[in-house]
Amino acid sequence: MNVGIVGLGLIGGSMAKSIKNRTAHIVWGADLNAETMTLARLSGAIDAPLSDENLRACDLLLLAIRPNAALEWVRANADKIEARTIVVDLCGVKRVVCSAIAPIAKMHGFAYIGGHPMAGRERSGFVSSGIDLFSGASMILTPNERTDMQTLETLKSFFTDIGFAGLTFSNPDEHDRIIAYTSQLAHIVSSAYIKSPEAQLRRGFSAGSYRDMTRVAHLDEDMWTELFLDNADYLSEQLDILIGHLNEYRAALGAQDAERLRALLRDGREKKATAGGN
Amino acid sequence: MIVILKPNPDKGQLESLISWLQGKGIQIHTSLGTSRMILGLVGDTSMLDIDLISALDIVDDVKRIQEPYKNANRKFHPDDTVISVGGTQIGGGNLTLMAGPCSVETEDQIVEVAKAVKESGATMLRGGAFKPRTSPYSFQGLGAEGLRLLELAKQETGLPVVSEIMDASQLPLFENVDVIQVGARNMQNFNLLKVLGAQDKPVMIKRGLASTYEEWLMSAEYVMASGNENVILCERGVRTFETYTRNTLDIAAVPVLRHLTHLPIIVDPSHATGRSALVAPLAAGAVAAGCDGLLIEVHNDPAHALSDGPQSLNPEAFDRLARKLVALHVFMRDLVAAQ
Questions:
Q1: Contact, B80 vs A180, CB < 8 A?
Q2: pLDDT of B74-100, one tens digit each?
Q3: Is some CB atom of chain B closer than 8 A to the CB atom of A173?
Q4: Which domains does chain A have, with CATH numbers?
Q5: pTM value?
Q6: Who is most buried in A26, B71, B79, B132, counting CB within 10 A?
Q7: Crossing angle, helix B276-289 and helix B315-338, to 10 degrees?
């Protein structure tokens, strides 16, 4: 298969490296950063730059750039995408992206399906990418009314070949609602948590809980600003829920109410037990 | 495996799914239910990825079918199968009364019985021409001549006829028979079932003397897999330790099969008991249990019948019974509707 990758940052770079490392597919890549392109070619992550010519020969096209940039790219290049090409965007929000790309794909006749690899790292860019980023991870796909079995079969073998544990099917709305909590809220909490003045005095006073809480505070503010604004409704809902819960703890403390506090903590422990995950 | 589609599926996507499945060598049986379409998949479905099929926009649910019978399975076809035979409908809430002599003996006999049972409300005429008898010294039936006499009775009364075939070679003689019966002893004559599956007359399969529901449904599956979906099942009693009755009528077969299959279920209380006095109570029991019809032996002179006289009703007794059964059927239908 000929795979084109637009954007060779953490996700696109890891896709390129995983494909070259684990499969015999040809990879053509594009990135606005000239240094990234040089690194990608030197490291063998791509076979050649993605050009207007080889774009037409792509069987699969992965868009590993931000939502707005992905839309712009598809608008600018749609007439160079062949009908047999499967386009998958890897953006972290799906409603905005899918609703804009799907009509373009339909008009030009190529297959399009939204995607979101459930893997990441707090550091960004090609230099942070790796062949094992997707090992054992879940790949979310949001099929639409034009998706056929052949496309699903091709994508399933492609993503499992490069290390994913399997596919998770969803729709853009469900994806955005759940991701607002599992990913976006966690980034906001981490970012807000680190702002305490005590954070700067933590050396010698911190261990695993500080590390876990602050890991994703190393975020790329440009990317996350866009992702948050594209999912502002669901994310605000999650923030309100969180603030409501924080206030419960605050009130129990203020009242010196051990019973209430214990009940709040027990409830959280039980919910974690049923939700699972490490 | 069954694929349950969402209402009003996109045509293009449905065609694409069907051609993808066919490309994998899977046979597809489409059932248009009252609310949604179901694709019944037959073949090596073990290599199909349920998650991928479920991910399609038009698909509501995908389920594997554990039972070995697929076409006969109600999961494949949620609505009752209704079979039309010469103006009468078998299945789907209708009560079909099939009546007539065990064996066709003479023109006068079959025409007289046919007229009588029609008058009493029977919608089909039964009559044996080829008789599988336990003893080779017993009357073996009139054969081709019996079928000719049966046709005369059919012309005389307009009643569609059901008669038993014993061997695939007899099929050409059954041209004017409306429903071909496979007897209990031939239930697992798979070659015969395949031959009957390749023609288009409805086939009524009687339950083997010691056959399980699954074996019986697999016989139906043979006919259906060969291309004929018009199959009727007939419970006629099974062999048990009890010798007082000829067989033991398994009335549970009616609700069990109702659950397992969409095919019409007929009960034969005459062969099940072998005693005419037991025909009426068991026929009533079968109707109350929800069967789609009854197969009852009626002879104008039971005492001198050439076969199975002791279990035959005379036309007068059948008349009284038929009227009761029709009333009971209406009563049961209203009772179920009221619940």
A1: no
A2: 998 989 999 999 889 999 989 999 999
A3: no
A4: 2-170 (3.40.50.720), 175-275 (1.10.3660.10)
A5: 0.73
A6: B71
A7: 20
